[in-house]
Amino acid sequence: MTVVVKIGGARAVDPEGALADIGALKDEGTDVAVVHGGSTAVDDALEQMGIEPEYVETPSGVVGRFTDEETMDVFKMAMSGLVNTDLVTGLQNQGIDAVGLSGVDGKLFYGPRKEAVRVVEDGKKKIRRGDHSGSIKEVNGDLLETLLDDGYTPVASPPMLADDGVAVNTDADRASAAVAAELGGTLVSLTDVAGVYRDPDDSSTLIERVETPEEYAELKDAAEGFMGRKVMAATEALEGGASEVVVASANADQPIRSAVEGGGTHILPSALPKDD
Amino acid sequence: MTVVVKIGGARAVDPEGALADIGALKDEGTDVAVVHGGSTAVDDALEQMGIEPEYVETPSGVVGRFTDEETMDVFKMAMSGLVNTDLVTGLQNQGIDAVGLSGVDGKLFYGPRKEAVRVVEDGKKKIRRGDHSGSIKEVNGDLLETLLDDGYTPVASPPMLADDGVAVNTDADRASAAVAAELGGTLVSLTDVAGVYRDPDDSSTLIERVETPEEYAELKDAAEGFMGRKVMAATEALEGGASEVVVASANADQPIRSAVEGGGTHILPSALPKDD
Known about the structure:
2 copies of one chain form a homodimer.
Chain A lengths: L1 E6 L8 H12 L3 E6 L2 H10 L6 E3 L5 E3 L3 H25 L4 E6 L5 E3 L5 E5 L2 E5 L9 E2 L1 H9 L3 E10 L4 E2 L3 H12 L2 E6 L17 E2 L2 H10 L3 H15 L3 E6 L5 H6 L4 E3 L9
Parallel strand pairs in A: 1-2, 1-12, 2-10, 5-10, 6-10, 12-14, 13-15
Antiparallel strand pairs in A: 3-4, 6-9, 7-8, 10-11, 14-15
């Protein structure tokens, strides 16, 4: 069995419980790969350097980071240098032989660059150029499997390598989906809430299991904001061959194990809308 | 044949020639591993964050970075996040399937922490605590060989993982020596001069070949400042099993090939002082 664990980069997500849990899973013979974000660390580093983080809104209302060249350097520093190294160190201290990777290593995450983005500024649609972002179309599964076969736990994060040879930003949730699809495993996406709620303000409305296209439609309606990105990533993971996606809380006791064993929101391949 | 290339982190060292050269060597079937420094990038990042880099002098006159906890975070950012990612990106753009590693990854560089250092301040000897530095005693050769066997080019740099579980600074020259010793290869240490000169100010006094203990004694006398560190690293590499060490210019045409084929200062195992 292979489990891909997505650890969020938000300040409210504490990775400690997940790190201990990975050791227990490894001991049982489960292959584990980790994918992480780190947007908070990027913003912190930008602030330390006196650079204002810039977020733009697309015409469809999605808010994302605008990553110019200077910001991209800070992104690499915070994401690959600080967050990744600290996670790998934490895993090593749990006795887990982790190896950190960015998407540039072995072209782990590769795909087209999106240099120009449509944005809405002051109510007007504009084209902004110079963005450092891209979409993952290829994952180097050979590199991950080589490391897993040798007993290592890969810990991967953006940046990705774009087709113009530049390291660029890419969404970490979708990166984790691409890894789960490539490895055909279960994606456990850890976040700061217990899963997807029908009513975002009411944790008693947790959607536990999404097995049919009807339940999937309900899930999509319920998922707002960053949960919308998680559902999009879940869809990509399942379309690509992941066996299951679970959205669950990082702050639970044994967060990965409890997610695999039924906690959180489980989304199954049978939930994907059928093509006509 | 295995070549370990040390690429310096000084501002005067341009890695471009070396990157192109690595591709040619790989095409000929030579395994190449890269180890790099990045002290200039660390100082630049510290400056951007408004932190003054701190250098201390030991009683024996060696000047080195004092790395407190805050500086250590910036070190990880600049070294593993920026310099490593940029080198791996540069190699990928030469068609070389590079994979970046810090010494924490797979415990690539592991050994004792040196938390307290003896320093001289205002002419007085003191003990300073809180330094994040250590000495490499173990190199994970399995991880390097797994990657090399699969066609990847490992690109490694400090930090190392200290025995107290903390990622700490370590000398990149000595890290490259440890890798060359572990792999039993040739260490090509690229720098901003053509090798070790008998007279540091006169490039016509290049020491070309060091084969005997007498020539080694002459080399040690000639090596001053940072060259002293390179000679110490060369000694460690050869003592550990490296086949040859070459100190040569990074800025030459085909810098690695010309070093392997006779350029620069060649130091051979027969030069090591014999134990009585």
